[in-house]
Amino acid sequence: MRCVARFFSAARFFRAARGPIMVGLLLGATAAAFGQVAPDGILNPRLKADETRYLPQLQSLQQSIAATKFPYPFKLARYLNAKPGQRAASDRNGIEFVYFEGREILKISGIYKTAFSATQLSKNERASRTFQDVVVPILRLVTQQVPANIDCDGIGFEIVYDTRDANNAYDYEGQEVLTAVFDWKDAFAYLSTSGNTQRQEILNRSDIFVDGKDFGLALGLKAPLNVQSLERSVPRQERTQPSSVSESAVSTSGGTTPAVVASPVVSKSKSDLKPPTTANAMQLQAQFQAQLDAMLKADGTRFHLMESAPPVFESHGGRTVLHLTMQNTLSFESGTSSIYKRAAQTFDLFLAPELKGLLKELPANAEYDSLDFSVRNRLGTEKSPSETVDYICPLNSVRSFVENKITSQDVINQSVVLVNGVRIALNLQLVE
């Protein structure tokens, strides 16, 4: 999806199988030739099934994107904020199925090699140019290459581009990230609409972010729209019809320009608005990226953290979560153990002993709610992990546990436990 917060990297906004999984060197080399994630690199059963089912279409889409001439060079990339020299920086698998706020999304992410002038173009103008230059052409390719009746909830784009701010004192260059998430029908309808009014309506009800912050992208305007007036600010269950639009004149630095202004579908108070947990995750990722990278480098081996899936802040179930992926040191045989026994022993014998030391290394003043420990299990003689157990634990519960105020079962009772994406109930004492 985590914006830049590994957005969908930056975000690491969208995460497949509860976080994109870096495939092995051989698989990685093969997948990079196509530009989409190989099915073997995904653990979540539904995402893996769709990646397998639609692999020919995704490969064709990647080839079409590579053959398209954009105004400036564009390349697919999976991890938009990976630093040169990191293994993630060489991952060109920018097409994959991921989960975003409970929806399955076909995510397309990449790097647009241009530098917009921040003094000549406003943030809305820079985002609009990137949207028109990159998102619209790729969206057209998607509608040509991918079936309209695909079993998917939406399409997401995550594009990073450079900005340059020059004045008499200095010349500064930075980056911005545009993220756009459309419902599947809206994505196909966008190109078939006849004018900007209808297209603006679709944008107004889609999820648009710039640098992880909810953004009212306005076509053809200097200033963005007020996000709180848009349909996306209304809880989904309260939406009864598409938001209406009207033409009005607004003053810009260049004079008077027609603007499309969205009218909210229903009246709402501030308390009714969708909490900005995704934006929170993105902001935290940007704020603590250096600390998380340093922890992974210095203590990754000690805490069995996986370099291919670095720590990332995410939005999950209305909460802001710090997601850590770990390789289990325990050995299991699938024929002689159940998922419940493996989940119980993984927590008691592998994860629990690490919590006290691990908690000391995590950002102390970061405002997040929970920790998601994704523990990869190898079964039998398999070389690669074939089972992932997630323990999504409230941060306060973990702190109470390491201070010996509550038991391990208390932590489990207050947490969500998933095995390969499926929630289970877990009684530690009964199954061990």
Q: Would you mind describing this structure in some detail?
A:
This protein is 32% helix and 25% strand. The chain has 11 helices and 15 strands. It has helices spanning 25-34, 45-53, 55-67, 123-145, 184-192, 196-205, 277-299, 339-361, 395-402, 408-413, 428-431; strands spanning 74-76, 95-100, 103-117, 154-166, 171-183, 207-210, 213-214, 245-252, 255-262, 312-316, 319-327, 370-377, 387-394, 416-419, 422-424. It has 432 residues and is α+β, with helices and mostly antiparallel strands. The strands form 3 sheets. Strands 1, 2, 3, 4, 5, 6 and 7 form a 7-stranded mixed β-sheet that branches. It has a 6-stranded mixed β-sheet with strand order 10-11-12-13-14-15. It is globular, with a radius of gyration of 22 Å. A hairpin with a 2-residue loop joins strand 10 (312-316) and strand 11 (319-327). Helix 3 crosses helix 4 (123-145). It folds into 2 domains: 25-274, no CATH class; 278-431, no CATH class.
Top keywords for this entry?
single chain, 2 domains, 7-stranded mixed beta sheet, globular, 6-stranded mixed beta sheet, alpha+beta, 432 residues
The sequence of SSEs as H and E is: HHHEEEHEEHHEEEEHEEHEEHHEEH
Largest sheet: 7 strands, mixed
Report the principal-axis shape.
Answer: globular
Low-confidence stretches: 1-35, 86-90, 236-276
Helix run count: 11
Whole-number tally of structural domains: 2
Distance between the termini: 37 Å
Our estimate of the beta-strand percent is: 25-35%
* Average pLDDT reading: 76
In which range does the helix fraction lie?
25-40%
Q: What radius of gyration results from the CA coordinates?
A: 22 Å
Strand elements, count: 15
Structural class of the helices, strands and pairings?
alpha+beta
